Amino acid sequence: MTQHIVIAPDSFKGTATAAEVAEAIADGWRTLRPDDLLQSLPMADGGEGTLDAFAAAVPGARRHQITVTGPVGDPVDAEWLELPDGSAVVELAQTSGLTLLDPLQPFAAHTVGFGEAIEAALDHGVRRLLLAIGGSSSTDGGAGLLTALGARLVDVDGGPVATGNAGLATIRDIDTAGLRALPPDGAVILSDVTNPLLGDRGAAAVFGPQKGATTVDVAVLDANLARFASRAAEAFGRDHAERAVVEPGAGAAGGAGYGLLLWGATATSGARGVGEAIALPEAAAAASIVITGEGRFDDQTADGKVASWVAGLAADRTMLVAGAIQAPTEGIFLAAASLTELAGGVEAAMAEPLVHLRAAGAALATQYRP
């Protein structure tokens, strides 16, 4: 009997895109069950690869090539994605991402390019923005993106504030008169990060070290963000700005989440936002089995990661493929396959991930009993 199998994995970071993962799992499944109907819906959580996941899952999606200001000023070739419903997907990792810098520059890196990409989508006339903000290189609180969208940050001498976190130390005023309006149907932030902007769990303390900051640097980065927040309270309204500081996700992408919240965007789980946009809940409800996956399944997976969110859609009908499984899967997944176990080790699994993903797909098919 033909079964409907939905395959909705995240990317395996550094080894395979979500679309490649889904295709390899499907190839493996077909070797055992060639008559099943396989539907690939590659997923993402708001980080690198989110735009590609939408492009693979949404028929009629159209890429728009652009050149923007990179995280320390060099031009960067990027793109935004137009969806048939009039939405646009803009991915921060492409414009202001960590992988664009070598060496890392925690005080100089900024989000101007991300704002320029958003502006390009607005100029095209999109009705809604889906803003994927994982993988940031900066800790500028979103000041750069707001500047690109028309806000003016003025320093103590009356001139423009320098880009990056370092410039935040000199802010005197923020002029929002020229700030562009949200598109008609608003803007949604896609992120799996729930940290606030400031403090021990804030953007600088938790993510600054990943961006090249020392322990001493973290304290300065946080103080500069606090100064930015104090000026934002005057410019955007104290109640609105103070709520944004502590809202879960304000600290995402070095505070880019905060800048977008100031602008009026709303935050959601990256996995949920992507999944709902590509109609995964509806597909999962109609499926016989849903297969999800990620590079590493561990105790942090439950914190908004793709695999846990997908499992919640079809709790008794979900299977897992992971590069490594480091947490119990019983009671969560119907079956699970680890590339590390199939390959005989981590290095072997990473050397030929698609080979072992196909093996994982076949292994799950052998365990399936309709």
UniProtKB/TrEMBL annotation:
Molecular function in Gene Ontology: glycerate kinase activity
Keyword Transferase: yes
Family indicated by similarity: Belongs to the glycerate kinase type-1 family.
Signal peptide as annotated in the record: none
Any Pfam family: Gly_kinase
Gene3D superfamilies according to UniProt: Glycerate kinase, domain 1 (3.40.50.10350), Glycerate kinase, domain 2 (3.90.1510.10)
Name of the featured protein: Glycerate kinase
Entries under NCBIfam families matching the protein: glycerate kinase
Keyword vocabulary terms for this entry: Kinase, Transferase
Lineage: Bacteria, Bacillati, Actinomycetota, Actinomycetes, Micrococcales
One Gene Ontology biological process: organic acid phosphorylation
Keyword rRNA-binding belongs to the record: no
Organism, scientific name: Plantibacter flavus
Lineage: superkingdom: Bacteria
